[in-house]
Structure formats: structure tokens, C-alpha cells
Specification:
This protein is an alpha/beta fold and 723 residues long. The protein is built from 24 helices and 33 strands.
Amino acid sequence: MTCNHLVLIGGGHTNVLLMRQWLMNPKLMPEIPVSIISRDCHLVYSAMFPSVIAKSISLEESLIDIQCLAKAAKISFLKEEVRDIDFNLRKIVLNNRPSVKFSNLVLNYGSQTRITKEFENLVSSQIAFPIKPFLKAYELIKKEDIYDSDKEPPFVIVGSGLAAIEVSFALRKRWRDRNLKLLCNVNKINYKILQSLRNSNIELIDNLDFYYGKILLCTGNKSPAWVKRKFLELDSNGRIITNNNLKLRNTSGIFATGDCAVIDSAKRPPSGIFAVKVLKTLVKNLKKDIDGEPLKKWSPQRFGLQIVNTFPKKNPMAFGIYRNFVFGPSFLIWCLKNKLDRNFIKKLRPIKKIMNNKVQDNSMNDCRGCAAKIPQGVLNNSLINADLVSFATSPEDSVEIYQNSKDIILQSVDGFPALISDPWLNAKITTLHACSDLWACGAKLSSAQALISLPKVEKDSQNYLFSQALKGIKSTVEDQGGKLIGGHTFESRSLVNKPYSLGMEISLSVQGILNNGSKPWLKSGMQIGDILLMSRPLGVGIYFAAQMQNEYLGGSSDEIMKNLVTSQQYLIDQIYIFQEKFGESLVNAATDITGYGFMGHLKEMVESSNLFRKKNKLADIKVLLDSSSFKAYPGVLDLVRNNIQSTLFQSNKEIIEPIFKEHWSDRIISFTKENLIDNETLSEIMSLLLDPQTCGPLLISCDPKYESVLKDNWYKVGEVIKR
């Protein structure tokens, strides 16, 4: 059975506007679950990209946060690239992950730069690169900044269209001295624009019979490779032909818009203006199609105004092109373009403001992942009241359940409500987070069991969510060298909200093994003279709190998500290699930084160590932290300055506050040169150190002589001294 599931393919302008429309008016949204699959978390607004190249605006000013918009509109977000679509089986084939089934589809995947045969070898040798995808092209352009000199080989732009022309003007603004050449057909370019190019010292050429540097291809658009393999009706440019109701011909439930599509009865060249104009019809037709009602027709306008920024040295100016008429360049035309671009971005930026004007389910703003832990004070008091004092006073990340002459088996359990709306990716994150308890004890995953709670929704939706989660858990466990050996499921009785994937809860019991007589790393083994080393930046809880509050997150997502789905097993393997080399243990104590933040888990280490030392009549220890050494994920400190906090932050703070009320000399945790840290900076540091982490860093206490061999993957944050 194909599940009822509307999937938006691509983070193009139309799909982004579609999500905004649903956010503004939820009644227009179909009743069935909706997901969006996008290669990137952000859409670069193409009309503003030349201004980014010219350094007239920052890249961030041109970005639209697709992930945040999807979350606000209660749409599941899947960051992945489409490899194929099976229209018969209603299945979307993705890179490196399970396929996704659909009942209804909107294709808005945009286009790729067409690379002609004459440039294929130059692209392969990395001499030439396409303008799309924009983010990758921009990174390559930035690398060329060091060559802004007339003595350097010329930079070549290829193309005769308006995109190539505007990019040429932008690059001249960016590089005042470098030799720029535009490889084009001058017969296709208006004489006024040609003159402006020449006046900007951009040389027009028709071949590459000279020594050149890098080549930027603005050579038109083409569809992804998988489109050509399909039995779809395509025009000569590989665009999907649709009816005037935006549906693919001879298919059911499949729509296509934007640069990837063309209406058979009204063929028009690709234009961003259609993304706005088509929206009302697309919104209505999607709902009508799912409800079985007749669809509305839409016809794009025949002609539209095109504007090209010339990026002069002084006052901004632009050309206006309508049909075969060229106006300008003038400041007024630039003003018009600037107003249109700013208004478009403005529509998609104030997500928080939009949401604040709507009735919301506040429970959906509670932080998730490991930030969903109960407060540490509640946990410890409950353990003590239940006569489990040792669990409160001497906590360990894993417990020993079996031992023989060679091996030790450790076990731990962890889990939380869904952190993100992608069920497969969320399962991977939860699995890696559970494995972290084993790594903190020096163990390697051997097996796992899963406990999964599914929302009470239609059976086909449950099947989709459950299978995606199982595939995510299984693949992650197997990647760690372990095996998924069983589990249990139950159906939640909580109220169901969209997206349904956020109604899932996953917990895992994980078993790890210590081979060849190795002993578990404990929290209680800190030694006087040790240094503290950490494996990752901090700030995951702050980031997701901002997402829950619909804050604009800029470009901070990628590094965080990359770390969330990266195993830290290799760090443990590396330590054992060094131990074998040196013939002694490197790690005296260890833990992983999760829900109670760096400070909460460090407090457990210090207190456990002091309890052990007291029993063995050894001097107490304390920790001195270097406030300047801690690393935060990109953009996190800006969120801190905007007072963004996880819902677990306050309880974490309450546990730590008594320590810092003591005299400096009596504390178990202090900062070096604390009297020299201003209150604002100290507050920012503490916000970071009290932030709950999901898939957070590992923290080890070791002899300082090992810092040099571990420095590539670990960084020093403090030292252990006598109290």
C-alpha cells in the first residue's frame, strides 16, 4: 500500500513560497502528511546572488532557511539529494539512505548548469566550474580573491545570457584589477549592454586561445540526470511538460513548477517571476487534486520585466529589459530591483513574527533530544528517595554486566523524543547518542535493542515512520560493527501533531565490549596534574532551542548536523592505538557531555573522583577551566546574545549555582583568572557550558604528556589540581 504522503522535491522558490502560504493559512494545506526533500538547508535567492558576488550584500542576506520554514509549517524536512524517482511504484530513491514513498508529488528541483562538451574536460580538471549550485560556486569564487591583480591569468565567464552578464558586472565590482573576459556571442547581446561591459573593462571574446585561469560557466540550464532516464515528456531543454493545471500529463497526483517545468500550451523561458505568480493556483490545485475536485487552469504572462545590475563604482545602476527594449542603466531601475528583492526575502524571513501571531501548541516548543531529560535535581532526589544513593553520588555512563578472563560487556540505555522531523536521520542521531555512553567508557558497540513509540495515526503512516526509523537504527548499529538484536514497540497516547515524525520516541539499550583485558574508563579516576580534553564544540541545545522558537539560523546548520551524524568511535580506536604504542593507559577518567551540559557532567566527574579519593585517603581535587578555550558551533554565541536557551538550561544552572557561590579557593570548579573576566563574557561562557548536548563531545582526563599526540582531534579546556 502506498502511504498518503505529499512530498515536495527541491527547495526551489515555488516550494519555499508554498510552505510559507501553508504557514500563513493552514486551512489551505492538504490533510495528509507533507515532507520536503532538499539538497541544502538554505535556498540562495538567485536574484540576489550577483549582489553577493559583488560584495554589495552578505551571503546570509540572500539565504532563505528552508529547514526552519518547514518546521514552522509542520512539514518534515529531509536533507538529501534525489537520485531517482520511480513514478510507477511511487518511490523516491535517495543517496545513502532508504527510499521514500509518496502518493502526491510537487517537482520544483530547479536546474543544473548545462556543461557543453568543450568544457567537460576543464570541469573534470577543476579549471572550470558551473554557477550552480550557487553555494559551491561562491566558495570557489572566494578562493580566487587572492588573485585580484592584472598580473594574474584572466578569469573567464562563459555565457551570452543575462545571468552571465550580471555575474560579469558583479565580478568586476569584486575584483577591481583582475583581467576579466566574457566568452560570449556578441550578436545575442544588446549594444547598450555591450558598451557597458566594455566600459567596465570586461573584454568580450569568442574563444579560449590564450593562457587563462579559472572559468565560470553560466551556460544555461539542464535537468538532473535522473529526469532523462524517466518516461517523461520533456522539451528540448529537458524541462518537464505539464498541462495548464500544472500536473504532469498522463500521471496522477504529480505536479511540476519552476525552472524544471514548462506548460505545453504556454511555453515560456525560466523566470523567477513565475514562482510568485503560480503560487495561488498551485496551492488550490494540490488540495483539489487530493480531495478529488476539478483543477484550475493557469497561464503564465507572455512577457516580464528583467533587470540586470551593473555594479558601477559609485551610484548603483541597472538595466531594465522588456521584450526587445533595453532601458538604462539608471538608478531608478536599480531601486525597483532592490525593492523587489528585499520584499521577496522579507516575506520569508520573519517566521518567528508570523508564528507569534498564530495560536500555537506550546508543547511543540519544548526542547527535544537530550534536552528532554528531567532536571538533574529531580533525578538525584528521586534516586536517593528510592534508596539508590550510589546512582546519584557515583553515576557512570555504562554498567558492567559480564566479565571473563579476556572481555568485559558493558550496557547502557538512552533515548528521547524525536529531535528532528526526518525519521531516518533522527534514528541515526538517537543511536549515535546512545553509543556515546559506551565510548565514554572506552567500549565498542556490539549489539543494540530498540524501544520505539509511534504516534497514533493511520497504519500506512505508522508503517512509513517505523520502517524509516528501523533502517536508520540498523544501518548505524552496523556501521559501528554491531548488530540490532531486537526491541519493542508501543503506540503513544499523546495528542498527535504534524509532522507525525516528531511524535516518535526512540530509546536504545546498547551493549559494548572491552577486549584483551581493558578496563572501563570511569568518571571517578581524575588525577592531580591531569588535563581535560574535549572532542567537539558546544551549543547543540541552543541551536535547537532557536529552531523551536523559529529564530533565523543563518548558515549554522551544516556543521552541527554533520557532527550529529558522525560517530566518535574512531577517537576511542585512536586512543587504544596510542596506548599500545606507549604501553600504558592514556585515559584516567572520562564522560560524555549530554543533557546536563558540560558543567553538570564535569561536576559528576569531580564529585565521583573526590568520593573515590576520600575512600582511599587521597587529597581532594578541583578543576581549573580556561574560559577562552571552549569552542562553540558557528552562530551559537550570537543566539546566546539574543537570550536563546534550552528549556533544560535553567535547571542545569540551579545545580551549578551553589558551586559558584562558594569562595574561589573552596570550589570544585573554577576559571583561571576569573577576576579578569567581565560579567557579560562570563555569562556567555556559562550559557554555553550549561547547554544540554545531543551527540555531544567526549571529555577525558589524562596526563598532560599525551596532549601532543591527541591534539588533532581533541582540545584542552582545563586542568586538575589539588583542592
